[in-house]
Design a protein that fits this description.
One of its GO terms (molecular function) is heme binding. With 296 residues, the protein is mainly α. The chain has 10 helices and 4 strands. It is elongated and about 105 Å long. It binds heme C. Heme C binds next to helix 7, helix 8, helix 9 and helix 10.
Amino acid sequence: MRNTASILRIIVLVGIAFLGVEFLLETDPGHWAVVEYPKTWLFLGIVLLFAVAIEASVAALHSTLYKSLSEEKKARYHELEAHKSTKFEQKIQSILSKMTRSKSIEQEGEIELDHVYDGITELDNKLPPWWLYSFYASIVFAAVYMVRFHVYNDYTQEEEYLMEVAEAEAAIEEYKRTAKDLINFETVTLLAEESDLNEGKTIYNANCVACHKADGGGGIGPNLTDDHWILGGGIQNVYKTISEGGRSGKGMVAWKNDLSPSEMQKTASYVISLYGTTPAEPKEAEGDIIWTPDDN
Ligand code: HEC
């Protein structure tokens, strides 16, 4: 009895560890973490080793303690153990019989029907409560479902699909907005999509026009439409200037705390798209670095 219990405990523990590994390590659907990450075997092996070691030490302790008992106490111990196990079995039995309301073979005579066919008799068993209540629950579920989806036409499967896709897309957007490492000045690329440039323009108009003018002609800040750059042209330099700011004390602050990486990428792309346009009142060219979009 004790051995089976120990083995069961070990299996359950290793099973939980296995489920934990599968749950915590992300794998593509249909793939097993234990196959994709062979190192997990090491972890499971250690768990197994620990479980066996703990069971073994507890058993050893138990037997040492048992040996130290006097004969009289040993007898008392056996009595208590027997009592414990029968009590436990009784409890299990009573739960089972409550869930099934089945009759034991000895009592079957009480529920046997008169109906006999070819020597086969029939028992008038009660419906097992576990089954009966699940059946009632399914009826309630069906009624609610029917009214909700077929009478009030809540949403169709197609709408449910579209809702989930929209949610997933929102989550991706959110991720892109907040994931800092996705874009930095080394990996940033120039955007050419109309929609991205329009977003960049919106951000520029909201934050930058005070110093650079709406047409990029420059004011407190330098002219952004010419080929002269103080801090360097090209998407990488412009992104870096927006993100980290200009030389200290000049007035160009770092925007990385106010704008997300993708917003700065769009704004930088918009700034570069201003090259070659003719502002109403262009500020004189500043900076010694000459860069035009053709240099990329
Ligand atoms: C408070 C005024 C101010 C605001 C607001 C401002 N800038 Fe600037 N910007 C400057 C100044 C001043 C410089 C020159 C920095 C230097 O000399 O180091 C500059 C430099 C730049 C440069 C580098 C130009 C070069 O020649 O290298 C870029 C690009 C730029 N700003 C883009 C932006 C963008 C995009 C925004 C809005 C998100 C913005 N700025 C908002 C004042 C401003």
